[in-house]
């Protein structure tokens, strides 16, 4: 997988070493903790997690079998008022049919130092909230009381889950430092979990195996004739081994945001779990997620996934009508995609399984992601195309690092052609073939065929999206600039601009455009191909600005690109830990004609330059030429990879540094 190539952090073997667990106890807050004014290592931290301990075990009861119990204790120090947000905590819980996870909050208190004494304020019921997010997800929220700078808060919560396979992730790293983090799992020998670690900070690990037992009580009643005497009870003891694993990290730094990172959680030090095997005594071993093929076959066989693709009766007449006269695969693909987008509105729920089903979604004209794109896949198959669903993990959901059923939360469609896959998503009204919503551009997806086989699909765009600017402007002797701009966007740039334009009124859009472009005044604004999404969208407008030039000592200084100047290097940190995610390759091209004022001549022009990165990563070209009172400027800034690895960061930083230096060089005009 390409993920392994790009991420040195991705799949690592957890190493075993001795970890000395520290002793922490809720309620034992010290005066020293309350007096502490700043973090010892990160003095800029607004808060810190003094300690966080988690314990997971599988408890057995005779009615329900093994139940997953998760206990978490946390103590947090608030240094600054900005850190008060950490007094608000959220715990999600899963709902499935008539069963759900239960959450109990306990030992939740705020501690403050008042007149040299420790004052404790207990969390009351009015600080606990329960929210239903949707039919499958709920949230328990707490707001700790009496928070001031210097407060220490602590709380404990216990989650009891009937879903043994859904062990929660454990984060060691947060936006603030963590002084101590400890996570322990106690797993009966009957269950085998895959354990995956991500991030750049690794825990110490200790493992132990101990004996455990289950007591089963059974009873025998007399038969209908009273034979057998009174009801009798018997007990059976089942012995088994339980594996205890403890992970410990001290002094974890806060994770720092970097520019062009799609989801910082991809790089956060954490553990993820997936049930792999269940092996009961005297019972065949049941495998859940040994490899991607078995994972996707399991998903395909879900009642609310694969079988939904076989339902066609509800749309056949309609699709037959819209396909009349459409003979080529390209025509059929565009026709069916546009039909689904216009027929069914996305309810913004992300899932790879259906909720109400494709037929009902079609009838009600609204549905979730799975209903819309499985419907799209079925229609494409009906049109005679080789179409299959592709499982995706959205950017917000993270990168699927290892085979597991919860790695995905989204599904799109793919049509297989001799020239490769054409990827489609009907949830977004501005998407086109091979131009997916940005949320779906997350490394790799998994295509599933009817026979249950699967293959990895590269989701990252290869085609360069264009932003072509044609501008001519004139400068008067007082430095006022007037001109016209024609800007043409293609592919992903076009999708982003269309979405931006459609989400606000034109007056609001233009006001923001003026503010963003050095307070220019825009007039004669027009749009072309706003609705015809297979064509580039074009904006044209006239503009005027009085602060686009500088007048110093009778000379005029002007950036040739005006408000299109890249005047800040977005990559300045010395070391980059994470890949740079541009979302898609792009090419920004500028063709600019400048009329200099009468009575002036050119004193200085920026020199032409070209910067090329290795491995065809990108190129920057800058050319300028004078012809009488006219200047002609041509600029190209092109990045050819959607994702740039951290190993290439230094080269990328130098590239941007050179580009910014050149674009900020000014034309100097002097009086004749």
Please give the oligomerization state of what you see.
Answer: single chain
Overall form: globular
Strand content: 35-45%
Helix content: 10-25%
Give unreliable regions as ranges. 1-21
Distance between the termini: 64 Å
List the total number of helices.
11
Number of E-state strands? 37
Derived structural class: alpha+beta
Neighbour order of strands in the largest sheet: 6-5-9-2-1-11-14-13
The biggest beta sheet reads:
8 strands, mixed
The rounded Rg comes to 31 Å
Short characterization:
The chain is of the alpha+beta class and 672 residues long. It is built from eleven helices and 37 strands.
Question: What key phrases describe this protein's structure?
Answer:
42% strand, eight-stranded mixed sheet, alpha+beta, single chain, globular, 11 helices, 672 residues
How would you characterize this protein structure?
This protein has 672 residues and is of the alpha+beta class. Helix content is 15%, strand content 42%. The chain has eleven helices and 37 strands. The strands form eight sheets. It has an eight-stranded mixed sheet. Strands 26-27-25-24-31-35-34-33 form an eight-stranded mixed sheet. Strands 21-20-19-22-23 form a five-stranded antiparallel sheet. Helix 7 (358-364) packs across helix 8. The longest helix is centred in the middle third of the chain and has 15 residues, at 329-343. The termini are far apart. Residues 1-21 have low confidence and may be disordered.
């Amino acid at each position: 997988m390409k993920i392994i190539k790009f991420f040195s952090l991705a799949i690592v073997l957890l190493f075993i070493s001795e970890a000395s667990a520290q002793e922490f106890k809720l309620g034992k807050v010290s005066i020293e903790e309350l007096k502490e004014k700043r973090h010892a290592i990160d003095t800029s931290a607004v808060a810190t997690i003094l300690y966080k301990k988690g314990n997971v075990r599988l408890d057995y009861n005779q009615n329900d079998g093994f139940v997953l119990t998760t206990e978490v204790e946390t103590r947090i120090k608030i240094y600054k008022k900005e850190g008060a947000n950490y007094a608000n905590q959220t715990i999600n819980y899963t709902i499935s049919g008539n069963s759900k996870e239960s959450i109990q909050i306990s030992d939740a208190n705020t501690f403050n130092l008042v007149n040299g004494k420790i004052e404790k304020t207990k969390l009351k019921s009015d600080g606990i909230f329960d929210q239903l997010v949707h039919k499958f997800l709920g949230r328990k929220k707490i707001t700790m009381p009496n928070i001031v700078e210097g407060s220490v808060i602590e709380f404990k919560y216990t989650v009891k889950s009937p879903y043994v396979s859904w062990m929660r992730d454990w984060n060691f790293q947060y936006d603030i430092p963590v002084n101590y983090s400890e996570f322990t799992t106690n797993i009966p020998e009957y269950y085998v979990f895959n354990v995956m670690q991500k991030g750049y900070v690794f825990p110490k690990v200790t493992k132990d195996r101990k004996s455990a037992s289950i007591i089963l009580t059974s009873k025998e009643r007399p038969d209908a004739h009273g034979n057998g005497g009174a009801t009798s009870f018997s007990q059976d003891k089942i012995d088994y081994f339980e594996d205890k694993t403890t992970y410990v990290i001290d002094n974890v730094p806060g994770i720092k945001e970097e520019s062009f990172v799609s989801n910082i959680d991809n790089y956060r030090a954490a553990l993820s779990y997936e049930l792999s095997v269940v092996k009961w005594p005297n019972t065949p071993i049941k495998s859940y997620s040994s490899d991607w093929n078995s994972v996707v076959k399991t998903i395909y066989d879900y009642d609310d996934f694969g079988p939904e693709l076989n339902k066609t009766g509800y749309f056949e007449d309609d699709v037959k009508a819209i396909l009349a006269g459409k003979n080529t695969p390209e025509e059929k693909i565009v026709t069916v995609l546009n039909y689904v987008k216009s027929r069914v509105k996305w309810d913004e729920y992300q899932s790879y399984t259906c909720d109400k089903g494709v037929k009902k979604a079609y009838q009600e004209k609204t549905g979730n992601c799975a209903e819309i794109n499985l419907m799209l896949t079925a229609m494409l198959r009906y049109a005679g195309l080789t179409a299959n669903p592709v499982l995706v993990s959205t950017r917000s959901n993270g990168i699927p690092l290892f085979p597991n059923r919860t790695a995905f939360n989204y599904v799109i469609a793919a049509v297989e052609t001799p020239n490769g896959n054409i990827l489609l998503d009907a949830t977004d009204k501005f998407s086109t073939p091979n131009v997916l919503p940005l949320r779906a551009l997350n490394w790799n997806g998994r295509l599933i065929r009817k026979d249950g086989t699967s293959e990895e699909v590269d989701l990252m765009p290869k085609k360069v999206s264009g932003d072509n600017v044609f501008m001519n402007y004139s400068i008067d002797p007082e430095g006022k600039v007037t001109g016209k701009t024609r800007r043409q966007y293609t592919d992903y740039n076009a999708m982003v601009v269309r979405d931006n334009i459609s989400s606000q009124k034109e007056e609001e859009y233009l006001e923001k455009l003026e503010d963003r472009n050095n307070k220019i005044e825009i007039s004669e604004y027009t749009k072309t191909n706003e609705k015809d999404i297979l064509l580039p969208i074009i904006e044209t407008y006239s503009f005027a600005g009085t602060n686009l030039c500088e007048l110093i000592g009778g000379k005029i200084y002007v950036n040739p690109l005006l408000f299109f100047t890249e005047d800040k290097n977005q990559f300045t940190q010395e070391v980059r830990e994470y890949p740079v995610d541009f979302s898609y390759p792009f090419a920004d091209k500028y063709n600019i004609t400048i009329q200099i004022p009468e009575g002036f001549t050119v004193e200085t022009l920026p020199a032409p330059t070209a910067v090329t990165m290795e491995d065809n990563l990108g190129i920057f070209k800058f050319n300028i030429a004078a012809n009488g009172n006219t200047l002609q400027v041509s600029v190209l800034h092109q990045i050819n990879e959607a994702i740039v690895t951290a190993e290439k960061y230094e080269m990328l930083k130098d590239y941007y540094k050179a580009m910014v230096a050149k674009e900020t060089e000014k034309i100097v005009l002097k009086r004749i």
